Amino acid sequence: MKILFLPGSLSAPASRFRILQFIPYFKQLGYDIEVRVTYPERYWQHQFSIFNYIAGISRVISAKFMLRDVDEFDIIFMNRDIVPEISIEFLEKSIFRKNPHLIFDFDDAIFLGNRCNKLKSILPLFSAVIAGNEYLASFARELNSNVHVWPTVVDTDIYTIKQNKNHSPPRLGWTGSLSSFSICKELTLQLLSALIKLIKFEFVMISDGTPDINIDGLKVHHYKWTAEMEAQLLHEFDIGLMLLNDEPYEKGKCGAKLIQYGAVGIPSIASDVGVNSNIVLNLETGYIVNGIKDAIDHAIFLMNDERLCLEMGHKARKHIEKEYSIISLIPRMTQLFKSISAPE
User: Fold this and answer.
1) Structural domains in the chain?
2) Spatial CA neighbour of 44 closest among 26, 32, 28, 56
3) pTM higher than 0.85 for the full model?
4) How many CB atoms lie under 10 A from the CB of residue 196?
5) Of 13, 74, 247, 257, which has the fewest Cβ atoms less than 10 A away?
């Protein structure tokens, strides 16, 4: 089987978790794989709008070249639309005319805002739509009859379980981009500010830039994110955080960081929003909380009980291996690919 993957980027989290990490496994299965991205990549931006305009034109031109031989592939799998420009709908339509074996994958609420009309125009063309959670799938089902929910997963050979004991003082941690942190920054800082007045702990953050965190008495460790070191750096955490507001965009999040936390064997404290309560088994692999006070109480309780913290972490690892590992998802992916490339 010959598959063309269109991740939109070679470094963005969605591309890494939803496409790129699967490539070695598919090659081992004997699939003929090609990965192509536009130039510049989807998320490239410049401070001056004129350069972004030129970049948009360049993306469209490179996309047309990138799609020159789509009729030669059994499956074309893309994460999000081919180019981010919301007025450009003809690329997906031109592919469909040449090769209808198309799969569209998305793991964020990209239908909120101006992109919605574009998605309504192109999603009916796809042989299948893959959504990262049920909230996203509910939108897709209005436009396509073949919608599947595939959770974000991790490679549990790379994300190894933390072997060392917890740090002293204990460490709360968060991983993600600074743009993602902006969504939860207010809640996270509220928690940290309240906690440091009640218990001694440290905060660890892995991100693509230095966070602006200045809280009296709180020691902050910042590690520069790299794809090669992210899994190992998570061992610096004792407890992972994912606090979110209960808003439409946040409901579309697929909980990648919670899956990462569990994969390395640490418990999580997460807001009861979206898929968080599926990934974190409340009272077993961490705590699902409602509001800052609830988060404070459970964080203190967990930081004061190292044995419980370690036990929850080990249960979290087993849960991730069963439900959120690459190995758990590959059979579903290959089954769909076969059904689309050679329908009965």
Assistant:
1) 2-153+326-341 (3.40.50.2000), 171-323 (3.40.50.2000)
2) 56
3) yes
4) 17
5) 247
